[in-house]
Amino acid sequence: MTTNPQLLVLAACAQVLLTIVVLLVLGARRNTAFKAGEHGKDALLNDRAWPPYVLQVSNNYKNQFEIPVLFFAAVATTLAIQATTMVFVWLAWGFVAARIVHSICHCGSNKLPVRFISFFASVIALTVMWALLATHALSTGTT
User: Fold this and answer.
1) 94, 91, 116, 79: which is closest to 2 by C-alpha?
2) For the domain that residue 15 is a member of, what is the CATH number?
3) Which of 20, 26, 38, 70 is 20 to 30 A from 131, comparing alpha carbons?
4) Do residues 84 and 142 touch, judged by C-beta distance below 8 A?
């Protein structure tokens, strides 16, 4: 049973928005550190030249191009084979919600238990999404 693919596209848009927000926060923190002289002389070439509060956001921004890449591939594949289901949409939004929590924690308090649980939840959602895609492909012959 398929559902409205726009709901899936909106989840992908929310993940893109999260990445852009993290980038803007990174820019603001770098600007603050730069104005306060809290950066090393090779800050443009070396991330480690920034203070920890900048590195947290920098690391989170880099994270947005790791696991989320597999999310975007799953979304694109699902749309391409017209296999969008409500379960898939809920998993996609669950993935995005977990990534938002992960980013808030990573850029803020950086409490490892919360960060790990939110990261793990996003990986579980993504794994189930890919399992559903594989099941669909095997059951319909769609590749």
Assistant:
1) 79
2) 1.20.120.550
3) 20
4) no
